[in-house]
Every structure is written in structure tokens, then in C-alpha cells.
Amino acid sequence: MDNFDLEQRDNDQLSQSSTLPMPVLFLGHGSPMNAIIENEFSISWKKLGKSLVKPKAILCISAHWITQKGTAVTAMQKPRTIHDFGGFPQALFDLQYPAEGSKKLAKEVISSIRITKVQADFSWGLDHGTWSILHHMYPEADIPVVQLSLDYGQTALFHYQLGQELRKLRRQGVLIMASGNMIHNLHLIAWEKRHLNEYGYDWAIEANEKMKVALVEKKHRVLLDWQNQGTAFENAIPTPDHYYPMLYVLGIQEPQDQLTIFNDRLVGGSLGMTSFRLDFQT
């Protein structure tokens, strides 16, 4: 299995855990409007929430919390709902997701990560990469939610290895969810076709197919080396902010995991909603 699994330091801790590992999710979140409209994506998120064992807490790695010098984790008791966008209907700004935070999970994240020092954050909250999805998955907002930031100054391999250090949380009843879009080029989006969930530029189709093959065949090196995969990847990932969250899930992936792809759609030519989940097979 070509997955850069370089570190085995958590083995002793994992063996002490008795809870069956929770699934792990990478979710293409797309437009914030998906939070308040019913479409195939929001419907799938509702079904996803109903299909999972209810987690004790949720840890989300969102494309919309970027830090420049270090990694941070939300540690407040009541995270605010962040409306980090503009130009949308008032109904979207009115939406609140009043989930509790979890100081206990924040401390567990800080103690689990050794590749870097993680800072406790008391100012961020829940951005739309998190709540636009959870609003459909868990509409009661009755599960504590914590966010982990993306250190934008780090490499793809760093994010992958940090994901590896989060593995043990699966065995503590924590649902780990990464939110972004593997294909995310808003500069090239075909606005006149943005509502067509089957339309993609040739390069977007090519990149999406290559990414899915790499996911299914566990060719993690291809996805880590995204800058050297040709023009299709260059167009698909002009900046890696929406791509990096996916690498955390690949780092968490274990040999016993079954990978299932869903929401495999391109929107407006250059936005990929392709998502996948990992389910531990006993």
C-alpha cells in the first residue's frame, strides 16, 4: 500500500482503545447555498448523518480556517457561527449552528499531535465549511464540534502526517470530517452553468478521474505530489486550501478501511463535489 505511512507511534495507544473506529469523511462542500437549499448534496448529507453511529464529538478540518504560522484548535465552550462569505441571501446569514464546543476534545487533539505544537484557539468558531454540512447531517446541533486549522505554510506531506496522528481519535467515538473540494477553481467557473451538477471542463473531468483512481488504488504519493501531475491538476488546484483537508483523511486511512466515493459531481465546470468515506472493516 503506497501511503507514506511513516510513523507508527500511536500503536500502543490505539491498542488500549476498545471502541470500534468511527468512519472518517472527506466532504466536498461547494457553495454556502447548499446549507439552505435541498439538492442532491444536501440530501446525501442528511442520509449520511442518519447512517452513522452518533459520535461523541466531531472534529472538522475545514478549508476555510487557514493559519499562517502554526496549527490551532478551537477550545471555546460555545463556538460562534461564522458567516465567512458575501453576496448571498439574508436567510443564509440568519442561519446559526449552535453546537457546543469541547474542551476535552481540544485537549486530546493537542496531546495527540506531535509533528507540531498546536495552540488552543478561543476566537474562531465554526465556519461554513463545517456548519453548512452539519446543518443537514445533525440539524439538532446536539453534538460537540471542534475545528482544526490548516497551517498554510506547511507541505502536503505535513498535512498527511498530521492526519496520521489523529487516528486514535476514531477509537474514542470522534467523527473526523474534512471539508473542502478536490477540484476548486472559482476563477474558471462557468457561472451560466453553475447549477448543472453534471457539467465539467475536460481538464476537470480528467483530474477528477485521476484522483478517484488514486484514492481507490491507495496511490497516496500521486495525491501528495499534486503539483507534478500535469495541466489538469494545475487547473483543478490553483491554490491548495480546498485540497489539503482531503490529505488529512488519507493520513488517517488504515489498511482495514473500505473507501466509498459519493457525491461524484462537477458543478459549473470547475468545482468538484466528489466526496468519500472510510469505514473500518473488522
Automatic annotation (TrEMBL):
Quote any Pfam family the record assigns.
LigB
Name the SUPFAM superfamilies for this protein: LigB-like
Keyword entries, A-Z: Dioxygenase, Metal-binding, Oxidoreductase, Zinc
What region holds the Extradiol ring-cleavage dioxygenase class III enzyme subunit B domain? 52-254
Instruction: Indicate whether Oxidoreductase appears among the record's keywords.
Output: yes
What InterPro entries does the entry give? Extradiol_dOase_DODA, Xdiol_dOase_suB
The reply on keyword Acyltransferase is no
Any idea which GO molecular function terms this record carries?
ferrous iron binding; oxidoreductase activity, acting on single donors with incorporation of molecular oxygen, incorporation of two atoms of oxygen; zinc ion binding
Q: Which cofactors are required for activity? A: Zn(2+)
- NCBIfam families for the chain: PRK10628.1
- Per the similarity annotation, which family is this? Belongs to the DODA-type extradiol aromatic ring-opening dioxygenase family.
Q: What's this protein's name?
A: LigB family dioxygenase
